[in-house]
Amino acid sequence: MKRLFALTMxxxxxxxxxxxxxxxxxxxxxxxxxxxxxxxxxVMYHNFKTMGDMIKGDxxxxxxxxxxxxSDFAAMTAIPWAGFQVEGAMxxxxxxxxxxxxxxxxxxxxxxxxxxxxxxxLKQLATAGASRTELGQAxxxxxxxCKGCHDDYRAD
Amino acid sequence: MKRLFALTMxxxxxxxxxxxxxxxxxxxxxxxxxxxxxxxxxVMYHNFKTMGDMIKGDxxxxxxxxxxxxSDFAAMTAIPWAGFQVEGAMxxxxxxxxxxxxxxxxxxxxxxxxxxxxxxxLKQLATAGASRTELGQAxxxxxxxCKGCHDDYRAD
Lengths: 156, 156
Hints:
homodimer; 156 residues
């Protein structure tokens, strides 16, 4: 993929993609879609868990770094869901995503939109310099949204 | 990590993290920082390449989907760089990142800020329903920013 990427960046000529199978991105390839959403969820997770660690005191609480993590967490809450909408990736292979996601898409969507709302709230509090107690409550609220979705839609 | 994640989401008790080594996130662990930035760059790549594929005609051009990819690409251009700032991940192991990044951090930063500007411009054009020709030019501009940074700061 690396060479393909480097070449793509230079000129984007059609001829480079004679092999359209290898050229397919996550939005047109089920296996890549699963990896895509897992990568995005993992990036989201690291930001979220760092905030949790700060609230608990496992790492030093630094408001500026907390606000950066809150901002990146909020941005990431918009990203993974496109990877659940690719043909063949419902649920796809090598995934803990349950078929119930697609049987109850509107509910799943409501879950991830709630998480986005929670994350925006957390970001605003962090940017405004809210207290550690207030931030801790906002982290807990977002954690409950994560858990609610995982309980229904992720294999144990 | 999965079990740790599930437990974290429930209550965030300190006791779960007696093993602080395994609990460390990408922002406090060099190896995880490298994976983090690679995951983020990969998510960014899939969004960008899909737009390039649409411009070239390798996949159908659909303005609404293009705008979604442009939006997610713009969001992702803010994310990977924190992973380059973690102690021990400069450059870290299993990475194509060159030491020159940290020798010329201000220049590296200028590169990724330029990419963010390019991506915001692309997003605005896509949201405003710009022509495929205009979008193609904006994709090319962003591609040149990618390439400029890779030429200087990524191993071949």
